[in-house]
Every structure is written in C-alpha cells, then in structure tokens.
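Continuing from yesterday's entry. The apo prediction looked reasonable, so today I'm repeating it with zinc ion included to see how the binding region is handled. Same sequence as before; SMILES copied from the compound registry.
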Amino acid sequence: MTSSLTADSRGIIQPCPACDSANRIAFARLSQRGRCGTCKAGLPFPALPVEVSSEEIFTNLVAQSPLPVIVDFWAEWCGPCKMMAPEFTKAATQASGRAILAKVNTEKLPGVSSAQRIQGIPAFILYKGGNEADRTTGFQPAGRLLTWAGVA
Ligand SMILES: [Zn+2]
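Holo prediction written out below.
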C-alpha cells in the first residue's frame, strides 16, 4: 500500500483498483470520476497526498484543479512535519472527491517555498481557483485541518 500519489505536469497518476494500470487524471478533471483506459473500471477520486516533484507540477495543479488544493510544505529534518504526515494522509482520504491534498518538500523545491513565502514549517496553504485563499502553520489533527479548509 503506497502512502502517496505521484503526478506529472498534466495530472495525477492514479493506479486502477481493478487492473493496477497507471491512469493520468488531468488536473482540470479532478472533480469528475474517470474510467481506467485499460479495463474501463471506474477510477476512485484521489484519496492519498500527491507528492509534488517539480515547480511545473505545483503551478499546474494549483492553477487547473477545480477542487480546492491544500498543500503541506514540509522537510525531512522537521519533527512536527513528520508527526503531521499520518494526519495529512488521513485528511486526504477523508476529503477524497472534495479537495486535493499535496505535499511540497521545501528542500527539494526551494523555489516553490520561497515564491510562496514559506517561513515556519509545517505550513499549509489552501488554494482555490488558482489563488491562495488561506494559510496556517503547525501540527494539527486531520479533522481540524479539514475544518480550517472548509472541506470537513
Ligand atoms: Zn483498469
């Protein structure tokens, strides 16, 4: 069982629960239920955090997602970030179909964290329609994070 999903510059890679094929769900279609390109089974909504691995993926996800996007800015050396990881995963599962939860490693993507003016971590930014709607910092249980984001 993986604990995160990957993405490319066009969408989130969602394994098919029936045949395990990798399917790309375009960022712009994240609010719709897709079908597996191989076996035509219905694909679930993403229910795990998405690992953001490039600046382009970050930009496209935030700009194109019709669902609110909650981004966790974290780093390996940050104890509270590590405590937060299982809560963030739980939040991604609970908000499946209503919000996309994504993770940015601030050491791997320093350009994204400086452009977003991240100071203390863990930091959480809520994006709606391509714009920052709110931000908060520090460890918090999944339920409180989703209530803050308005998707509980
Ligand atoms: Zn399939």
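Comparison notes:
- The CA atoms of residues 63 and 131 lie 8 Å apart.
- The helical segments are 55-64, 79-94, 110-115, 142-149.
Will overlay with the apo model tomorrow.
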